[in-house]
TrEMBL record:
Residues 182-205 are annotated as: Disordered. Residues 335-374 form the Vacuolar sorting protein 39/Transforming growth factor beta receptor-associated zinc finger domain. One of its GO terms (biological process) is endosomal vesicle fusion. This is Vacuolar sorting protein 39/Transforming growth factor beta receptor-associated domain-containing protein. InterPro entries: Vam6/VPS39/TRAP1, VPS39/TGF_beta_rcpt-assoc_1, VPS39/TGFA1_Znf. It holds the Pfam family Vps39_1. Residues 2-85 form the Vacuolar sorting protein 39/Transforming growth factor beta receptor-associated domain. Residues 183-196 have a biased composition (Low complexity). One of its GO terms (cellular component) is membrane. It comes from the Eukaryota. The lineage of its organism: Eukaryota, Viridiplantae, Chlorophyta, Chloropicophyceae, Chloropicales.
Length: 392
């Protein structure tokens, strides 16, 4: 084998050498060779004869290798994901989301140490979507059992972690641009702050704002609203501050913020969504020019008209249903049956006489006691059949 290695290196057949290492299960050497072909191709004494493996080139060859590497080599997966994170973040993300045998806790901690805030947010979004789709969470009990690996989640299983809380904290970090101070104080850990800032493209910033607002509007968050409020910088993230005040039931304060810092439409929209608190908000909009909020007024009128129409339809349907029930009642009350001295029960074939009776579905007379006895027998038979089916 050593001679084969020497010949392959000397002739520049490095891809064939990587395949040889793979065949011999020398995966560390194979992955290191593939890495050097991407990040340091000039370091080889003989230029590589080719740079593709299975028609894959660049980081894709290493990604494909790591995707199908046996799960006992998790250390190699994380070790070689580090340089892929730098050159191809989405490729590394594909490794973490495709490999179901990797610990989710370990991946999150790895992204916290080696990746960016964007990568952490993206992975949390993936986990939340996975849970909401009803799929079984994978990797929650992986072999990343070291205390430092579990620090982010206090050593608890990932299934018990509120992912929305973690996502909201990361979004606050990024929008604040405070370099991870929020996540450090919230998780009780002073180490391992993520890199990232509120910078980036306006489109990305807008998406982050929108996602945080969605979380603040949802019931999934369990973080203390007071704590979140304390993390917001003065004069910034106004809509987020208003949403937190809304969660606290402080509608007047939220409305005052929107009136001072946001377009009039925001306050009118808030009033429309919080009609129960309209008394606290009505004087805030009293001095606004109607023309400035004409669109919102039109929307409110449309909502009122829509609700009245729905109420009217519901009322008509309820009335129709009541009439139908009354008609059926009258129809049943009109029914009559003739009981003669010769009338007998169809179950026990004894005379009805003055006993309590009912009419079965075929219009035949049945003693009430016989009817109840039949129902009891049928219920027992059904339970016995269900038990037998369960044993089978």
């Amino acid at each position: 084998v050593t001679e084969a290695e020497r010949v392959l290196r000397k002739s520049g057949h490095l891809i064939e050498l990587a395949l040889l290492y793979r065949q011999l299960e020398r995966h560390g050497e194979a992955l290191a060779l593939l890495r050097d072909l991407v990040i340091a191709p000039d370091t080889f004494h003989v230029p590589p004869h080719e740079s593709t493996i299975n028609n894959l080139k660049g980081t894709n060859a290493s990604i494909e290798y790591l995707l199908y590497l046996d799960k006992k080599h998790q250390d190699l997966i994380f070790e070689h994901s580090k340089w892929i994170l730098e050159f191809d973040p989405q490729g590394a993300f594909r490794i973490f989301t495709y490999r179901k045998d990797l610990s989710q806790k370990k991946i999150l901690n790895y992204l916290k140490e080696k990746g960016t805030v964007d990568m952490q947010i993206q992975y949390l979004e993936f986990l939340i979507a996975l849970r909401e789709s009803g799929q079984e969470a994978f990797g929650a009990c992986g072999d990343g059992g070291d205390d430092d690996e579990d620090a982010m989640f206090g050593g608890s299983d990932l299934a018990e972690v509120n992912l929305e809380d973690k996502l909201a904290i990361l979004l606050l970090d990024e929008l604040n641009g405070n370099g991870g101070g929020v996540s450090a104080s919230a998780s009780g850990s002073a180490s391992g702050s993520a890199s990232g800032s509120a910078g980036g493209s306006p489109e990305m910033s807008g998406l982050r704002h929108k996602r945080l607002q969605e979380l603040l509007n949802s019931d999934a968050l369990s973080i203390s609203p007071e704590w979140m409020l304390s993390q917001l910088p003065e004069g910034q993230l106004i809509e987020e501050r208003a949403l937190i005040l809304r969660r606290l039931g402080k509608h007047r304060e939220a409305g005052a913020l929107l009136k001072k810092w946001c377009p009039p439409s925001k306050l009118w929209e808030y009033c429309r969504e919080e009609r129960a608190a309209y008394g606290d908000l009505v004087d805030l909009v009293g001095d606004e020019k109607l023309g400035d909020a004409l669109d919102e007024v039109v929307e409110i009128l449309k909502d009122v008209t829509r609700e009245r129409k729905q109420t009217s339809i519901l009322k008509a349907l309820t009335k129709q249903e009541a009439l139908q029930v009354r008609s059926e009642l009258i129809s049943h009350q009109k029914q009559s049956v003739v009981v003669s001295p010769e009338s007998v029960c169809r179950v026990c074939y004894k005379r009805i006489q003055n006993s309590v009776f009912i009419l079965d579905r075929d219009g035949r007379l049945v003693h009430f006691v016989c009817h109840r006895r039949q129902q009891s027998k049928a219920a027992k038979a059904k339970a016995t059949a269900a038990a037998a089916a369960a044993k089978a």
